[in-house]
Amino acid sequence: IRDITPAEGQELNLTAEGEKASAMTFTNTYLAEGKGTVTLDKTLTGNRKDGIAADEFTFSAVKVDPDEGYAPILEDGEEIAYQGKTPVAAETDEDGNYETRVSITIPFDQDDIGDNWFRLTEISGEDSSVVCDSNVYYVKIHVKDDGEHNLDASSVKYYTCLLYTSPSPRDTER
């Protein structure tokens, strides 16, 4: 039993909620977290001599709603977006192209259990001598709870968009 004493000048008011202990309920919320990773390949063609610098190219993964024509999902009026940047690529392949792999890490919480769709694009940089790729890709990440307070986001499927006038990845899984 705890004695509750009101502060000086205040009054303690109690309200009856019921005659059983079930009238008083404490609710706990189970929380789990996890991360998923989207990987993209970047190729720089054209015989540029200085390779790909760290953070030179940026890629965006914007969360979209497939039931709304793959429109961006907004949170507090802003798109839910994550970015990844290129690591250094100083070596060329046999054709003189520089290649590197970009990772975009996406955090998930309990509200993300199920399928999550993202639109992947390259963000144009400031170097006017490089024409950025305008392709649009989609990725579906299935998130599930492993029962140990962790979310598993390892099921990742990549899709291409064959006709961007009406972005719908449908059955173009690659």
How would you sum up this structure, described in words?
The protein has no helices and 10 strands. The protein is elongated, with a radius of gyration of 25 Å. The termini are far apart. 0% of the residues lie in helices and 41% in strands. It has 174 residues and is mostly beta strands.
Q: Briefly, what is this?
A:
The chain has 174 residues and is an all-beta fold. It is built from no helices and 10 strands.
How much β-strand is present in the residues?
35-45%
What portion of residues is helical? under 10%
Order of helices and strands: EEEEEEEEEE
Q: How is the biggest beta sheet arranged?
A: 6 strands, antiparallel
User: How many individual β-strands?
Assistant: 10
Shape: elongated
CA-CA gap between termini: 64 Å
Could you outline the blueprint of secondary structure elements for this entry?
Blueprint: E1 33-44, E2 58-65, E3 71-72, E4 74-75, E5 78-79, E6 81-85, E7 98-109, E8 114-123, E9 137-145, E10 151-160
Antiparallel strand pairs: 1-7, 2-3, 2-6, 2-8, 4-5, 8-9, 9-10
